[in-house]
Amino acid sequence: MSLHSLFGKHTADVKVSRWDRGRFVSRCTSCGADMIKPPGLAWQLRTVGTL
Hints:
It is globular, with a radius of gyration of 11 Å. The longest helix is centred in the N-terminal third of the chain and has 5 residues, at 3-7. The protein is mostly beta strands. The mean pLDDT is 84. It contains 1 helix and 4 strands; from the N terminus they run αββββ.
């Protein structure tokens, strides 16, 4: 099990981020999970049901 899996520290890959529906969309550099950045907020994992 990796430290990433234990601590859940996700980092967005800003090189591949794009603007989509009023927020930035990217992927985690470690695990490839989808991430979003709503305006004025920090990067977060995209949850089910969030486009």
